[in-house]
Amino acid sequence: MRQMLVSFLFLAGIFQALPGECRMIDLYIGNRKLTVEVAETPGQQMQGLMFRESIPDNFGMLFIYNDEETRSMWMKNTLVHLDLIFLDRERRVIDMYMNVPPCTCSPCPSYPSRKPAQYVLELKGNRSTELGLKVGDRVFFIL
Predict the structure, then answer these.
(1) Which CATH superfamily is domain 2-141 in?
(2) 105: which residues sit within 8 A by CB, 6+ positions away?
(3) Whole-model pTM?
(4) Which residue, 21, 85, 120, 131, is most buried by CB atoms nearer than 10 A?
């Protein structure tokens, strides 16, 4: 019975994270406006940008957590290269991984933040470089 419940919760979490289920907000890097999906539930965070065949230039996903701690991301079932940007509670960039490739081995490598992070922003691979984003910069958004 417990296994059935765990399986149900897992599937329910996946269902909640399907495209169109996440709310969208505007996010600013300098004077550039991007539209991002907000991943705030465990199901949405688990799904992330998996199975997306492409990511538009001015699009991304913002993972929101309740507190700052070391965060780790991976690229399981991700089909495109991504930039992983870790932000502290002040929404300042504290760490970045650029143009991370899709996972092709098992287990998939993890990409941990070097400092505690409260938010993680995922963008199309190399988009951060195109936008001139660097550690210490502030990202603006309203939740």
Answers:
(1) Protein of unknown function DUF192 (2.60.120.1140)
(2) none
(3) 0.85
(4) 85
